[in-house]
Amino acid sequence: MLKFIREGLICLIAGVAGVAGAAGSAQAASTYTADDFARVPKFDAHVHANSDDRVFLDVAVKDGFEIMSINVDYPDFPKLETQADIAHKLAAADPAHFHFATTFSMIGFGGADWTANTVAHLDSELARGALAVKVWKNIGMVEKNAQGQLIMLDDPGFDGVMKHLEERGIPLIAHQAEPKNCWLPLDAMTTENDRSYFRDHPEYYMYLHPEQPSYESLMDARDRFVARHPQLHFVGAHMASLEWSVDRLARFLDAYPNASIDLAARMTQVQYQSKTQYAKVRRFFVHYQDRILYGTDLTAEPPDATERAQNPPTKGAFSTEADTFWRSDWVYLATSGRQNIEAIKAGVKGLALPKKVIDKVYYANARRVFGLTSSPPYPR
Ligand SMILES: [Zn+2]
To answer: How many CA atoms are closer than 13 Å to the CA of 82, on its beta-carbon side?
Structure first.
């Protein structure tokens, strides 16, 4: 079993047991096999390489991945300056495989200088090679204005910064709210990873905090924000927190043509749905094949392990963790192989998405969204 921390949830998956190594012969021409994993160019659009070494890059290169490492204002991660220093160093070391997204602090928000200072900071990071900007769930759930009210993403105070990103064509990666499970009783949650995490972290478990904004009010604020910035390329991290329903997600994508989503840390929710609605989930991926970015939320430990919330994987184990996780997702999305997914206590059949869909979800969409239009600078 694997266990790792992400900036919001712990994820548990089973080992890839009983995986069928190859797709059926009828599908062989149109789908990949498990053995194709390492050779097909891939892009993990949502990771956190917080470690000041090549541990993440080495396994990414071995497994055929480019990675987008996202700096984020998360208390259990290294401070923002340290995250930026690590990103600059790794981008310089391997610009073909390492990409990064910058972020900004909410300190001083609403003050006279915040917009100008934030724009200057973002421009500086973009000049260093950042390809996107991240906003985290602290907007909407933690940060408060001078009146003591939570600051929502559609607050006009963000307009100057977002207009700047629109004008520069820089995508915004937004993690807003939490999985819907966070607002449900434990026995109504759909995945074990959510259940165990929120049971162990009552401070983050919104079902216990009715004074906090509801799930739907956070979704509404996010939707108003996306509508307010129609020229901004919006990447809804973690399936835009609509992970529980491909129908609902389809309505979001239909309503906001400037939006795409990443799959980070929500694959078990997709698998939960495909267990009973296999054809519908598969149709979702095919229909929205240009709007979905593969991502995991894999997190290499920060330099100071005590800054991790709990149980950081040892340095030697991270490459195994990443490899196993990536291969499990590949079997699920690219092949018809079966595997046991512990987080939903079920055997799950792979979606066997067509090669052209896999090539977009796993690679071309991220390259396009993040402005990497050239061919990959290494052999395919
Ligand atoms: Zn993340």
So the answer is: 18
